[in-house]
């Protein structure tokens, strides 16, 4: 195979155009090309509108490839190297019990899938409901019903990412090709194959919920066991070793390998771990507000056109370093999406962003967040960041009377309550109420946000429009806790494997899934399957 990079075509090109361009770069006839495989596709929108291009990396199969390569002298043409992800062979230490996984978000699910495929028949405990029941619980809450504290936007099968945009891009370096493996698994269980090569792949909440269910069914087929509405409430630790866990306050499960993949919102679990003297550390994270703009305006700013069908809804990523030293940046940007009530505790309110696969909503939204560090937390406890989050969420709940508090950006700058929307149509899932967000959002962070939004207007025209809709509080951007682990992925409490976003080792669906795979590798490399599992 021959690899061609920097192959540029109009976004409206055909498959035949791709073949002709590849042939031209190789100085061949199109008929000489047997097969083209797209490896990567990105967008070059620097010239906007009709000049927007796709940039490809492709692998080409043709006759006499060595001869073709020999007569070409181009930095963008080379022999393709075939690399594949390799899962380790089983270790030799005996296992008395099936490995336990706490949590069925991306980290827990991918860890469970890899263990199941290796013959380890994991036990998965999830405090929330199966994804279909969970979706119904969330919808009832959004329509004005009571919050289900165990099954909501944060908790339940699929984790918090199930109600998100379903982004699959990550900045994690990947020499072992785990990222590729994650994408291949998503395609295997229902995602569009284009995620394998798009520069910014996404699935959408509707497709992701189907994939989650398909992965669960495969794990069960391979001998794994799921227990839903099963919250791990205690840990039995003796002599520095995890001996057992307690489920729902009564059921004791003996274990010598437990993967802790609980997600960033499992505050009661963190409290129990602290009570049981499991080492934890507070860490920096970020908090902020969601902002909504018309998707049409973002498309024009990014692509030079209100709509380019081949590209879909435009996204953005913006950052700014404030004069006060804090960073402001966009997070979890949702093209054509919705701002959702993502609360998980009574009397506390948090928001998130969500998009469907089509990304065809009227608005673009993203979190605009400001960095906070342990120096901002008055407590010395490892859980000081959680206390900080809770104070903000309680104040946001009061500000909106239990509904999502919303305010126009122009009113936010002037510290006055919003009384009516402007030209930006609100796009929410969950009840909302007009408010003054400055009542609960700290002045230092508010002024940082304003400075950032004004700076972003210089990059995206109209970003600082006065009728852009703000909503808060966005407090669950990442875990405020890290649970240290050694080179074998084990806590100093032997048998406990901190994993994924909740433990402080990931920051999104893909990185969490990759960490789940790495944790499965650590378990498999050390232990042999329990007798009767393989």
Strands of the largest sheet, in order across it?
14-15-18-13-22-19-21
Cα-atom radius of gyration? 24 Å
Helix share of residues?
25-40%
How many strands in all? 24
Count helical runs.
Answer: 12
Task: Choose one word for the global shape.
Answer: globular
List keywords for this structure.
five-stranded parallel β-sheet, alpha/beta, 24 strands, seven-stranded mixed β-sheet, 534 residues, 27% helix, 12 helices
Describe it.
The chain has 534 residues and is α/β, with parallel strands linked by helices. It is built from 12 helices and 24 strands. The chain starts with a strand and ends in an 8-residue tail after the last helix.
What's the quick description here?
This protein is of the alpha/beta class. It is 27% helix and 24% strand.
SSE blueprint:
Blueprint lengths: L1 E9 L4 H12 L6 E12 L8 E10 L2 H7 L5 E3 L20 E3 L3 H12 L5 E4 L4 H12 L35 H11 L16 H17 L3 E4 L3 E7 L2 E7 L3 E4 L3 E3 L6 H9 L5 E2 L2 E10 H9 L15 E3 L5 E8 L3 E4 L9 E4 L8 E10 L11 H16 L4 E5 H6 L13 E2 L2 E3 L8 H14 L12 E6 L6 E2 L13 E3 L10 H18 L8
Parallel strand pairs: 5-6, 5-11, 6-7, 11-24, 16-20, 19-21
Antiparallel strand pairs: 1-3, 1-4, 2-3, 8-9, 9-10, 12-23, 13-18, 13-22, 14-15, 15-18, 16-17, 19-22
């Amino acid at each position: 195979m021959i690899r061609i990079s920097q192959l540029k075509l109009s976004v409206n090109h055909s498959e035949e155009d791709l073949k002709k361009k590849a042939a031209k770069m190789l100085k061949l006839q199109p008929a000489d090309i047997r097969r083209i495989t797209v490896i990567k596709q990105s967008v070059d929108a620097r010239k906007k509108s009709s000049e927007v291009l796709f940039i490809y990396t492709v692998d080409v199969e043709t006759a006499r490839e060595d001869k073709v390569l020999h007569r070409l002298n181009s930095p963008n043409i080379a022999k393709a190297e075939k690399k594949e992800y390799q899962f380790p062979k089983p270790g030799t230490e005996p296992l008395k019990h099936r490995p336990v996984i706490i949590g069925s978000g991306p980290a827990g699910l991918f860890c469970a899938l890899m263990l199941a495929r290796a013959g380890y028949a994991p036990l998965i405990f999830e405090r929330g409901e199966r994804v279909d029941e969970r979706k119904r619980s969330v919808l009832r809450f959004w329509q004005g019903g009571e919050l289900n504290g165990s099954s909501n936007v944060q908790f339940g099968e699929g984790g918090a990412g199930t109600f998100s945009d379903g982004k699959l891009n990550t900045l994690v370096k990947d020499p072992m090709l785990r990222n590729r493996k994650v994408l291949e698994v998503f395609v295997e269980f229902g995602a569009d194959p284009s995620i394998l090569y798009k520069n910014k792949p996404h699935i959408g909440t509707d497709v992701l919920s189907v994939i989650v269910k398909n992965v669960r069914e495969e794990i069960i087929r391979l001998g794994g066991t799921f227990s839903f509405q099963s919250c791990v409430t205690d840990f039995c630790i003796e002599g520095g070793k995890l001996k057992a866990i307690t489920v729902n306050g009564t059921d004791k499960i003996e274990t010598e390998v437990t993967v802790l993949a609980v997600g960033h919102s499992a505050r009661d679990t963190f409290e129990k771990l602290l009570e049981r003297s499991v080492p934890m550390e507070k860490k920096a994270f970020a908090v902020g507000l969601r902002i909504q703009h018309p998707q049409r305006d973002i498309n024009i700013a990014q692509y030079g056109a209100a709509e380019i069908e081949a590209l879909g809804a435009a996204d953005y990523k913006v950052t700014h370093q404030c004069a006060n030293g804090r960073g402001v940046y966009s997070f979890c940007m949702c093209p054509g999406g919705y701002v959702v009530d993502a609360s998980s505790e009574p009397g506390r309110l948090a928001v998130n962003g969500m998009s469907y696969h089509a990304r065809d909503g009227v608005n673009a939204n993203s979190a605009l967040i400001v960095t906070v560090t342990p120096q901002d937390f008055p407590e010395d406890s490892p859980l000081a960041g959680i206390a900080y989050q809770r104070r903000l969420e309680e104040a946001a709940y009061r500000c909106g009377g239990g509904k999502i508090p919303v305010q126009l950006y122009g009113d936010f700058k002037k510290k006055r309550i919003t009384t009516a929307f402007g030209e930006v149509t609100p796009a929410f899932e969950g009840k909302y109420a007009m408010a003054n967000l400055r009542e609960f959002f700290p002045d230092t962070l508010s002024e940082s946000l304003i400075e950032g939004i004004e700076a972003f207007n210089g990059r995206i025209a109209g970003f600082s429009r006065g009728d852009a809709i703000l909503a808060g509080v966005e407090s669950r951007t990442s875990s405020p806790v890290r649970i240290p682990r050694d080179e074998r992925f084990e806590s100093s409490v032997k048998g406990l494997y901190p994993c994924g976003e909740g433990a402080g080792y990931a920051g999104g669906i893909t990185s969490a899934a990759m960490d789940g795979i790495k944790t499965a590798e650590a378990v498999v490399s050390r232990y042999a399957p329990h007798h009767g599992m393989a």
